[in-house]
Amino acid sequence: MKRLYTHFGDRIFAWALLLLALGVVALALLMAYELYQGGSLALKRFGLLGFALGREWDPVIQKSFGAWPYILGTVIVSLSALLLSFFPALAAAIFAAEYAPRWLAQVINFLLDLMAAVPSVVYGLWGIFVLAPWIRDQVQLPLYMWAAEHAPWLASILGVPTGYGLMTAVLILASMIVPYTAALARDAIALVPKEHREAAYALGATRWEVMRMAILPLARGGIIAGAFLALARAVGETMAVTMVIGNSHKLPYTLFGGAATMPSVIANEFTEAVEDLHLSALIAVGFLLFWVSMAVNFAAAYVLRRQERLVKGVL
Q1: If you compute the radius of gyration of the chain from its CA atoms, what whole number of angstroms results?
Q2: Sequence-separated (6 or more) residues with CB below 8 Å from residue 85
Q3: Which tens digit of pLDDT belongs to each residue from 218-266?
Q4: CA distances from 29 to 23, 106, 195, 287 (A)
Q5: Helix (H) or strand (E) holding 25
Q6: 292 near 235, Cβ under 8 Å?
Q7: Separation of alpha carbons 196 and 191, rounded Å
Q8: Chain-centre distance of CA 101, in angstroms?
Q9: Whose CA is closest to 174, among 139, 143, 131?
């Protein structure tokens, strides 16, 4: 037993950590391999590029499968939700960390954590029964009627005001990812050393100037990490988006009309896929989704590494 507390024990611990880390890498590679194998029938028939850029999805008549509508839908919905939620989330983080009284900050933090813990199907049900009818009656119909009377060219861009479509999915998804951006931004702001605030105040800076020049530059890495975490969450979201997006397979998408994402088409059709080619095409969509998620994570790692260098240069 004494040997475990010597250099020999350190080596065992280091090798154990290495094996566990390599296990994570092996698991990711195995997942990618299995997805490729499951989707190989569709990928070989249409080609990787042809499948990714194909616009037709017809499992019944033509037996043609193309994932471009779902890739485009995933990118549009995820990025739009991130852009819509980022500044409200950042504002909530700044207010909770710097401006709010302690009791109010605790309430805000509790509500943010609660929003992150709510299951996605609950957001989807709220979208179906509350948000979608309200958007249809209060936003989409008045705007569509105005466009039909004063700007007919705009009607084709807006699409049919059913309440279930791209706009509703973006709003639902934006509300779901707010807690992820806000929580990491709040923690990053709170971790900025107190000395930086005091030095800025000593130079005569206002409260906003302290936030802008002393706090946000040092907290930028955590804020960016929260944004990328929210984007990764948005890319992979399935149930809530599937329930409100309208699940249309056709391009071009419209603002009010239906759309589809890669997770939503898999959730909708996987249990109904009775032919090998159809099932393989759905797994191939999952293979592409895996690489899209990997690209988001690699981009996050690259941006964070650059941000760490900039912070070290400032300090």
Answers
A1: 24
A2: 174, 175, 177, 178, 181, 230
A3: 888 889 888 998 999 899 898 999 999 998 888 878 889 999 999 999 9
A4: 10, 41, 45, 12
A5: helix 7-38
A6: yes
A7: 11
A8: 31
A9: 131
